[in-house]
Amino acid sequence: MAQAGAPAYRRVLLKLSGEALAGGQAYGIEPDTIGRIAEEIREVIAMGVQVAVVIGGGNIFRGIAASAGGMDRATGDYMGMLATVINAIEKAGVPTRVLSAIEMRAVAEPYIRRRAMRHLEKGRVVVFAAGTGNPFFTTDTAGALRAVEIGAEVFLKASKVDGIYTADPAKDPTAVKLPRVGYIEALNRGLAVMDTTAISLCMDNKLPIVVFDLTRRGNIRRIVAGEAVGSVVSGDATSPKG
Q1: Is domain 11-234 in CATH 3.20.20.70, yes or no?
Q2: pLDDT tens for residues 2-25?
Q3: 121, 140, 146, 192: which one has the fewest Cβ atoms less than 10 Å from its Cβ?
């Protein structure tokens, strides 16, 4: 248990969807949203916490949508991964290094686990771009994979809702929020947390997932400080530490 005043986690991975970066826009990147998220990350870094980030590219291009339109699925996924790099190289206002699973040395460093760890230890925010570098894997799965590789203590899944519900609260007024959920329960009930591969990877490595509302200012800091925010997915539905 963290001491009073000490952060609950020392190393975290923050998963941001591309849609979150679009803010109120239908697509693209909203500068005000980027600035607010960067400021929150800066606050967390000031607490002595190491932060890694995985960013989706759904606000620019989504491979699955392209596949539905007749494009080869693998090609669509590769384009989606490149879109994550477009997001990742945006200025964050804090010491940042972008590590890409697809080599593109002109704009990002190649992903090497030890290099990522070293950047984190030096207080830099590490942005993992281009997913896993392979088609058919979501950026949620990439986030879970990188979190496990760097020894993150929690997976922070940013959302537009304040946690996990039994149904979509925007469509079903009877939907009930679930403060704590077990990995198996999330898989068996098909709860909208993230894809099954990502959840299974977190489960196998006992990595807790916190699903929270990114639109509420300060939520990232609150979670890192140990406050009860959003919904927690872990091995033990009563304990965020799994």
Answers
A1: no
A2: 555 689 999 999 998 877 777 676
A3: 121
